[in-house]
């Protein structure tokens, strides 16, 4: 059987550039090389594209971008041509692409921008499409849609650059401290602050505006965060629900990638009935936002047992130790099996949309 060329995109113009290098390495190392030929497409922090042919280790230590291992490249925009154009020494050569697998986190990669380009080119896309990616990245619009379907969400307010601070302060007093200040469109907890009191509100808002042009004030939810890995297009399967145990503060960037003072429990330490409820809620949210392929749905579980929506990660972390592969592993699916299914789903989705 002919191997399929899988273009794995990594890096990107995002604060989450370094996280993408780790995730892409995890994907490449776990692809079934009897079925797939990975093509590594690196995007630098300033947005230059390269076809990378060096060792994985250079992704992990961020030395991949060099003249020896890289050839400038772009996607052919001609629909149906399905190839990369390699630009070398004034010549153009074509490298066929059967499936595109974006492994970019945050803006300019997870937010529908790259997905739109790939869909325009007609290349089968692993994961969520343009609309679902954009909606899921936008915390305000995602919350509004999910709330309309009857699933509870935390109370929040959106701040624009010209919103008077007095309005933000009044809303903060209304929902009470502590509360969260978040960029509307960002990931990996960049720009997120848990605000303990009004004297810290202004600084938190200023920080969040460094990452997006809109900022969210969100009510703190007592309890803990749970997550659910979802896989599929029409028929969905889930991993086991996981639980984030915090010793203090919140699950910020440092805790997400070091677990210095927090723990992740898979399966979550909850009843089977509650786990089943969370899985069904995750599948409902996945469908409401139009997700396909795969995504991780994050929720809150209160001491009273209420489940509230937090956010959807359409390109969750993909290292061996990341939450999504961990939840699927607990449900009996190996990392390689999950990647196989994601790529199969990309081809299925493309055939349905032709």
Oligomer: single chain
CATH homologous group name of the largest domain: ATP-grasp fold, B domain
Q: How many helical elements? A: 11
Proportion of residues in helical segments: 25-40%
Number of strands: 17
User: What is the alpha-carbon Rg in Å?
Assistant: 20 Å
Based on helices, strands and strand pairing, what is the structural class? alpha+beta
Task: State the end-to-end distance.
Answer: 24 Å
- Reading off the top of the CATH hierarchy, the class of the largest domain is best stated as Alpha Beta
Within the CATH hierarchy, at the fold level, what is the topology of the largest domain? D-amino Acid Aminotransferase, Chain A, domain 1
Strand line-up of the largest beta sheet:
6-5-4-3-2-1-7
| Number of domain modules | 3
Question: Biggest sheet: strands, sense, closure?
Answer: 7 strands, mixed
- Return the string of H and E elements: EHEEHEEEEHHHEHEEHEEEEHEHEEHH
């Amino acid at each position: 059987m002919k191997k399929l060329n899988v273009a794995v995109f990594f890096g990107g113009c995002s604060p989450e550039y370094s996280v993408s290098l780790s995730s892409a390495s995890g994907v490449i190392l776990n692809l079934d090389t009897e079925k797939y030929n990975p093509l590594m497409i690196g995007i630098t922090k300033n947005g230059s594209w390269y076809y990378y042919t060096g060792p994985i280790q250079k992704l992990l230590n961020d030395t991949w971008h060099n003249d020896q291992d890289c050839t400038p490249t772009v996607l052919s925009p001609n629909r149906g041509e399905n190839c990369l154009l390699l630009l070398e020494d004034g010549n153009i050569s074509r490298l066929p692409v059967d499936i595109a697998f974006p492994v970019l986190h945050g803006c300019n990669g997870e937010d529908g921008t790259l997905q739109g380009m790939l869909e325009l080119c007609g290349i089968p896309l692993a994961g969520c499409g343009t609309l679902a990616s954009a909606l899921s990245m936008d915390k305000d619009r995602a919350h509004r849609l999910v709330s309309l379907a009857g699933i509870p969400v935390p109370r929040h307010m959106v701040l624009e650059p010209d919103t008077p601070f007095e309005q933000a302060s009044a809303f903060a007093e209304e929902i009470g401290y502590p509360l969260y200040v978040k960029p509307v469109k960002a990931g990996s907890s960049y720009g997120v602050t848990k605000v303990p009191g009004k004297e810290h509100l202004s600084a938190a808002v200023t920080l969040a505006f460094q990452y997006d042009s809109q900022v969210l004030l969100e009510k703190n939810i007592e309890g803990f965060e749970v997550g659910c890995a979802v896989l599929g297009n029409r028929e969905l399967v889930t991993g086991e629900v996981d639980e984030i145990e915090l010793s203090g503060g919140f699950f910020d960037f440092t805790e997400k990638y070091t677990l210095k003072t927090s723990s992740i429990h898979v399966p979550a330490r909850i009843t089977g009935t509650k786990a089943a409820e969370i899985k069904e809620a995750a599948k409902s949210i996945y469908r409401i936002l139009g997700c396909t392929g795969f995504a991780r749905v994050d929720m809150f579980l209160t001491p009273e047992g209420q489940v509230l929506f937090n956010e959807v990660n359409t390109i969750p972390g993909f290292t061996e130790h990341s939450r999504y592969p961990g939840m699927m592993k607990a449900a009996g699916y190996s990392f390689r099996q999950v990647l196989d299914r994601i790529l199969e789903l990309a081809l299925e989705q493309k055939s349905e949309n032709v």
